[in-house]
Design a protein that fits this description.
This protein is an alpha+beta fold. The chain contains eight helices and 20 strands. The protein is elongated. The model has no long low-confidence stretch (mean pLDDT about 95). It binds adenosine-5'-diphosphate and magnesium ion (MG).
Length: about 375
């Protein structure tokens, strides 16, 4: 992946309507997307993902701030003059045309020579693995195949940036998983920057080089899937991506980045302080269920509790543990061969958590 910048949004706000009907769809959003990157905008419905894509594509103008493509402000450029193409959720194919004609259409509109159109169409159909169906009408192929044709059509003019607005949401689960891998392959093979929009956290984690997590018109965090999952910046991100336990702790010592935090059990543990919380302040820790170990309820345990519920999932088992404080924590343990679980509902257990598995959240 190169470090050159493909797309930049600088302090972008977008307001729809006016007066009491005013909607602030984006509020001072800044993001830099690199060339050849698979970048995902992730967030719940209504958080502003589509609005940001439409601003990049040029279908909308920002109320404030600027959009730069290849380092150049593009406010004056209409959509068709930007080196950007969009794949929409409803593929918008021409049903009476064949697969090949659909892919050729945009190139012909651009006035490309016939030979070039043919070569490009063949290459694109190969890329999306639709060569064999090239003479079928798009009304006579499946949803997944239509999705591939829509991709081939959008990639054919060789845009520098491809925008994909929830392109897989109409597909069933199995096909969606298959297309996730395919999309990633197409992005690697073409070297085109993909900006992908989804509300599905698993989809985002699977495919992306980096993810921007959005909520209510803001970007809350930008990072690699691992950074976002392992080090969520705030409660929204921690809650939205994967499953998380929240636990309050008090800061009891602090010298620079080194400190100690006291858990509700009274046990104090050393901790690298990622927030600027001072001694005496209460912080919220985010702890992933698979990062908690079940141990004997002896003095070594960081927390103690009672097994309230055991749920067997095949690959792993989830334990709901009621702490002495009344709070419940979720613990997930992988089921390994020969590793017989002996715990039963009602048992008292100890919990151990490595300090690096306790992420202090931003207030
Ligand atoms: P997402 O794609 O994340 O679901 P959108 O970008 O479509 O979110 O919408 C963000 C917010 O802006 C929502 O509250 C939506 O209702 C509002 N919105 C989007 N487009 C328009 C529009 N053309 N006019 C008025 N409000 C809009
Ligand atoms: Mg949307």
């Amino acid at each position: 992946m190169s470090t050159a910048v493909a797309v930049e949004a600088k302090n972008v706000s977008k307001i729809f309507g006016a007066g009491i009907g005013e909607v602030r769809a984006l509020d001072n959003v800044s993001v830099t997307i690199r060339q050849n990157e698979f970048f995902t905008l992730l967030g719940p419905s209504g958080c502003g993902k589509t609005t940001l894509l439409r601003l990049i594509a040029g279908f909308e103008m920002p109320t404030d701030g600027s959009i730069l493509l290849d380092g150049e402000e593009v406010a004056h450029l209409p959509p068709f003059k930007r080196h950007v193409n969009t794949v929409f959720q409803n593929y918008a194919l021409f049903p009476h045309m064949t697969v090949a004609q659909n892919v050729a259409f945009g190139l012909e509109m651009l006035g490309k020579p016939k030979a070039e159109v043919q070569t490009t169409v063949a290459a694109m159909l190969k890329l999306v693995r639709m060569e064999e169906l090239k003479d079928r009408r798009t009304s006579q192929i499946s949803g997944g195949q239509q999705q591939r044709v829509a991709l081939a059509r959008a990639l054919a003019p060789k845009p520098k940036v491809l925008l994909l607005d929830e392109p897989l949401s109409a597909l069933d689960l199995k096909l969606r998983k298959e297309m996730q891998i395919e999309l990633k392959r197409m992005q690697l093979e073409t070297g085109i920057t993909f900006i992908f929009v989804t509300h599905d956290q698993e989809e985002a984690l699977t495919m992306s080089d980096r993810i921007a997590v959005m909520s209510r018109g803001h970007i809350l965090q930008i990072g690699s899937p691992t950074e976002i999952y392992e080090h969520p910046a705030d409660r929204f991100v921690a809650d939205f991506i994967g499953e998380t336990n929240f636990l309050e702790a008090e800061v009891t010592e602090r010298i620079g980045d080194d400190g100690k935090i006291r858990l509700p059990s009274g046990i104090a543990l050393p901790h690298k302080m990622s927030s600027n919380a001072g001694v005496g302040s209460v912080v919220t820790l985010a702890i992933r269920p698979e990062r908690i170990d079940l141990v004997r309820p002896d003095a070594d345990a960081h927390l103690k509790g009672r097994v309230d519920n055991i749920i067997y999932f095949g690959t792993d088992t989830t334990f709901h543990i009621g702490l002495e404080t009344g709070q419940a924590l979720t613990v997930r343990v992988q089921n390994r061969r020969g590793h017989q679980e002996v715990l039963q509902t009602g048992d008292i257990v100890g919990l151990k958590i490595a300090p690096e598995a306790m992420q202090i959240l931003r207030d």
